[in-house]
Here is the input.
Amino acid sequence: MQASDIQQSFNMINDKYRNQFYFNALQNVKDKVVLDVGSGLGVLSSYALHHGAKFVYAVERGRKESIISNKILTQNFSKKNFKVINADFWSKNIFENFDHDIDVMVSETINYDILGEGILKTWRQIKNIAHQNFTAIPNQFKFNLLIFENPLDKFVWFRKRFELIHENLLHEGFANSLANVYEKSKSSQLLYEFPVSQCHHADKILHNVINLTFKSYNDDGIKFQCDVDKPSLIMLDGTLIAEDNQLHIHNQKNPTHWSNGLSMYLPEKGTYEISFEENATSNLVKWTNVSTASNMWPYNCTWTYKKIDGEYNR
Ligand SMILES: C[S@@+](CC[C@H](N)C(=O)[O-])C[C@H]1O[C@@H](n2cnc3c(N)ncnc32)[C@H](O)[C@@H]1O
Here is the structure.
């Protein structure tokens, strides 16, 4: 979820289950120096200060969010104990802003596919200064894969969603340009946002297809394989972990603001290799709302698939 739209921030800060996860995970920060990366309106910084952090750096690239969070934190905590920094954490000189060693980094540069808002970049950046006892929250992610066979039979709206209705765009040139984008995304990668609340069961679940930990993640590409017997919709399902605290992001009983999930349609039976690409040439395939993707998300990344046992290869 991108917080440059303040309205969206309210979705996040109202998300009881993810709040509980971060609140619990920050319980042991007494007298520690905490860095909150992508601090938004400051809720996680406030948890750290509440639990007795010695000092909190709240780094947020959105200007509005930085101003608001500074106000909110000032109203609740002593200014001696925190600093809001309006900057891009991934920028080269970011560490010049810090006067302390960082003991704990908390970050929610995470979205509905966990990796799509740049948590790997955030991990990579902090590794430049992480000392022996440094901890990251979260410090581990596990992914399962839900496989829905023949989804087109089950989910009628899904077929409708990708129709492009020229007349509705009211501008012929624009409609033609969009048609190109539409054709490209249709024939290369089909990735959909898909409401998990409507997935009452998956026909198969592949457990733990990816397991990433802060300590061992070393920039290798992220890949896994998946076999399907029929055309199938697959959905990534994930868990955030910080020591003993876990948050299952697509739990149907306790849905989080990420619960829409990321889905891909695998068009025929076979074995597929699915990978997460950073620095992808385009992130459009990931989004149903093209303008949101290109304007608001500087981190170009995408999940892609290719069939590795036969004809179909895109
Ligand atoms: C998912 S929101 C979380 C906001 C807040 N931490 C919360 O828990 O409500 C992620 C925030 O990270 C910010 N962000 C993303 N990448 C960033 C970066 N490289 N540097 C600084 N802020 C970043 C976004 O602007 C957004 O406000």
Q: What stands out?
A: The first helix runs from residue 6 to 13. The CA atoms of residues 249 and 255 lie 7 Å apart. The chain has two domains: 3-108, 142-307.
